[in-house]
User: Which sequence fits this backbone?
């Protein structure tokens, strides 16, 4: 538990040190802009806390647009591919194993124009 607290404090300190915005323009823990360090998607304005690999630092990123690779919503709060923008659906295969390993990926499609 102590290690998690130390990690959280370090990530917050790094986010503060690397952001060029004034304190009034950014959130400290929530309402983070794209590119700022995050732990879960609920902290980001875009609702996507994205990481490139299992050991990389996660940063807020824009949600996936139509025909881009996406992730289904997960319990983890971080994604290898962001969820789709509002009005789009992440179409792809879903499996129990993929839900556990956070590998249920798909493509964002407009449900009104999908075949």
Assistant:
């Amino acid at each position: 538990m102590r290690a998690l607290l130390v990690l959280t404090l370090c990530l917050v300190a790094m986010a503060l040190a690397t952001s060029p915005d004034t304190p009034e323009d950014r959130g400290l823990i929530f309402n983070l802009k794209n590119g700022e360090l995050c732990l879960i998607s609920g902290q980001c304005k875009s609702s996507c806390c994205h990481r490139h690999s299992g050991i990389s630092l996660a940063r807020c990123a824009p949600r996936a647009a139509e025909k881009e690779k996406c992730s289904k919503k997960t319990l983890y709060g971080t994604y290898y591919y962001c969820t789709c923008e509002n009005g789009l659906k992440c179409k792809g295969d879903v499996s129990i194993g993929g839900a556990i390993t956070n590998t249920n990926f798909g493509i964002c499609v407009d449900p009104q124009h999908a075949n």
